[in-house]
């Protein structure tokens, strides 16, 4: 009796329970001539016949289950299974889907429910179906989409895309919602497919609209002031937009309707406008930063300082090398000029100068020059105001960028005549000797050995440096530089006679070699042997009638108290090569003092002051005159 009541309760629950997820239908089970016909209810269930089930249970199973439950106060009979249950068939689109199992679930000895199992792959779960027997059929049934194998995956895509869209993370939203760009029937049957499609269209439109606004905002900022950070911001925006453009291609290709075409055209136009703006901004910024070289004057200290430092950086050379196309300015060389670097920092020009070096290095790679033709012309127009032969220096290295070595050497030789800075003269000759080494086929072994010696010398290891120089000298035979470096080192080591022998050998090998003469003149004047220094400078001038040697001769003549000769050298030789030179005017003033010409001294000192009014030497000289 207790079992009967429990069974009746179970049947009533199964009969009247209304599920939100599944669907059910009624089917005539048996018709009776006497008594009431028997009907059953068929509903979607799990393998145990439960109607309220979690989708996870079905997703993990290879089968779909349908439960048969009596309607009314009766139960299944074992003897009726074959006659009344087995004939029940599942029909879809005219096809019969066979069940793979029939499971009788009993309570005690009573069959409470029957569960039929079907292979998922045999049933199109997105389409309607029905059950039938020889007595009739159910209404059309559907499996609620929550139980479809693809539901969890695509519903997650939908939810994630919707959440990302709400936070305006359009690209992230598209990464999930683009899974709906398919004509797969099972996906298109999902109830939220059309909404997902609308979200795709919305996010693409919103992304383009917001990007257009961002582009306008950055463009307006650039119109207010050109700034590399703003250009970089525009460049980063362009990179992100290009990625988005590629990401949205599947949407444009899949939809291919008028609305998507309009969106695609808007995006293409935005990318085009953005790239054009970047090019225009880069060009304008480059022109703005490099304009100093095209429009500046030596009267402007910043122009003079930048030109001088740039020339020193491109001239800087520590080792012999194969002269070939000049590829870039090494920005780390700035560390070799601490006073210049400090001045850049004090004047707050460091960032600007480093940016200029970057732009020039880009021009070397893309345009084939260090300074533009317009900048070169600007230097040419101001040659008479140069302190160093900047026009020739940049003409030389512009030629070397394109590996025009003949033009490079031509301007090097022109520069020799008017260089006033000993370090720059030394470096220029270093380049020239490197060129001659290539031209005269000096072996790589000699160059490597010689450079090893220079390396040891820079490290203070004179002994190993000299060993390398001697090896290089023996390997090369008549290559002058190893002899010069040996002479220099032996002089530093206090072995003057040995040093002189090597200097003489280097000059006998290459009479135009200036480096040995520069050092010999310096050594002799510092030791007070002015007559020997004068002989040496006269010997140098016989081979190299350059400003620097004329000026050194004038200095030596002053030390020998031959003031008028010194003055004549300055006026007739130095001034004809370089008219405006601070040290020349100072020396002329000193000579005038020695010649008892105080007014003449004042005139020359003032000319020096015109060139550099804050120079302490000028200030001190004028104070001396007032005493």
From TrEMBL:
Residues 169-386 form the SEC7 domain. It comes from the Bacteria. InterPro entries: Sec7_dom, TPR-like_helical_dom_sf, TPR_rpt, Ycf3/AcsC/BcsC/TPR_MFPF. The keyword Cell wall biogenesis/degradation does not apply. One of its GO terms (molecular function) is guanyl-nucleotide exchange factor activity. Keywords: Repeat, TPR repeat. GO terms for biological process: regulation of ARF protein signal transduction. This is Tetratricopeptide repeat protein. It comes from Candidatus Scalindua rubra. The lineage of its organism: Bacteria, Pseudomonadati, Planctomycetota, Candidatus Brocadiia, Candidatus Brocadiales.
């Amino acid at each position: 009796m207790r079992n009967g009541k429990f069974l009746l309760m179970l049947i009533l629950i199964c009969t009247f329970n209304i599920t939100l997820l599944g669907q059910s239908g009624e089917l005539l089970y048996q018709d009776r001539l006497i008594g009431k016909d028997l009907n059953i209810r068929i509903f979607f269930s799990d393998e145990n016949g439960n109607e309220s089930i979690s989708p996870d249970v079905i997703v993990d199973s290879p089968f779909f289950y349908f439960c048969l439950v009596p309607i009314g106060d009766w139960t299944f009979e074992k003897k009726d299974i074959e006659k009344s249950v087995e004939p029940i068939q599942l029909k879809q689109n005219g096809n019969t889907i066979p069940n793979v199992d029939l499971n009788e679930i009993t309570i005690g000895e009573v069959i409470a429910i029957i569960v039929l199992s079907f292979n998922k792959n045999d049933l199109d779960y997105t389409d309607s179906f029905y059950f039938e027997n020889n007595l009739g059929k159910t209404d059309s049934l559907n499996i609620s989409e929550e139980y479809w194998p693809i539901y969890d995956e695509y519903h997650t895509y939908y939810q994630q895309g919707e959440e990302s869209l709400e936070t305006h993370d359009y690209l992230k939203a598209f990464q999930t919602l683009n899974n709906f760009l398919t004509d797969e029937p099972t996906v298109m049957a999902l109830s939220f497919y059309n909404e997902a499609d609308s979200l795709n269209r919305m996010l693409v439109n919103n992304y383009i609209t917001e990007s257009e606004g961002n582009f306008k905002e950055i463009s307006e900022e650039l119109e207010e002031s050109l700034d590399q950070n703003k250009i970089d911001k525009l460049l980063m925006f362009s990179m992100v937009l290009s990625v988005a453009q590629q990401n949205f291609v599947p949407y444009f290709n899949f939809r291919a309707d008028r609305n998507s075409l309009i969106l695609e055209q808007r995006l293409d136009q935005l990318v085009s406008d953005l790239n054009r703006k970047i090019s225009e901004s880069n060009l304008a910024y480059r022109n703005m930063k490099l304009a100093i070289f095209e429009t500046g004057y030596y009267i402007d200290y910043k122009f003079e300082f930048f030109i001088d430092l740039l020339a020193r950086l491109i001239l800087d050379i520590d080792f012999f090398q194969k002269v070939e196309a000049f590829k870039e300015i090494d920005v780390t060389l700035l560390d070799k000029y601490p006073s210049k670097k400090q001045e850049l920092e004090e004047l707050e020009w460091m960032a600007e100068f480093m940016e200029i070096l970057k732009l020039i290095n880009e021009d070397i790679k893309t345009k084939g020059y260090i300074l533009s033709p317009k900048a070169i012309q600007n230097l040419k127009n101001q040659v008479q105001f140069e302190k160093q032969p900047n026009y020739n220096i940049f003409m030389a290295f512009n030629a070397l960028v394109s590996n025009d070595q003949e033009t490079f050497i031509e301007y090097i030789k022109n520069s020799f005549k008017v260089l006033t800075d000993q370090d720059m003269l030394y470096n220029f000759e270093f380049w020239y000797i490197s060129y001659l080494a290539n031209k005269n086929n000096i072996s790589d072994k000699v160059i490597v050995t010689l450079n090893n010696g220079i390396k040891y010398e820079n490290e203070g290891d004179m002994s190993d440096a000299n060993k390398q120089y001697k090896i290089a000298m023996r390997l090369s035979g008549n290559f002058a530089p190893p002899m010069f470096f040996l002479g220099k080192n032996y002089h530093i080591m206090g072995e003057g006679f040995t040093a002189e022998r090597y200097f003489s050998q280097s000059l006998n090998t290459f009479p135009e070699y200036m480096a040995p003469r520069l050092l010999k003149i310096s050594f002799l004047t510092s030791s007070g042997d002015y007559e020997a220094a004068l002989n040496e400078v006269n010997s140098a001038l016989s081979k190299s009638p350059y400003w620097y040697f004329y000026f050194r001769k004038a200095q030596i003549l002053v030390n020998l108290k031959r003031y008028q000769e010194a003055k004549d050298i300055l006026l007739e030789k130095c001034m004809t090569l370089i008219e405006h030179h601070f040290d020349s005017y100072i020396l002329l003033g000193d000579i005038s003092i020695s010649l008892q010409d105080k007014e003449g001294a004042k005139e020359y000192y003032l000319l020096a002051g015109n060139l550099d009014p804050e120079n302490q030497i000028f200030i001190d000289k004028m104070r001396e005159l007032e005493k």
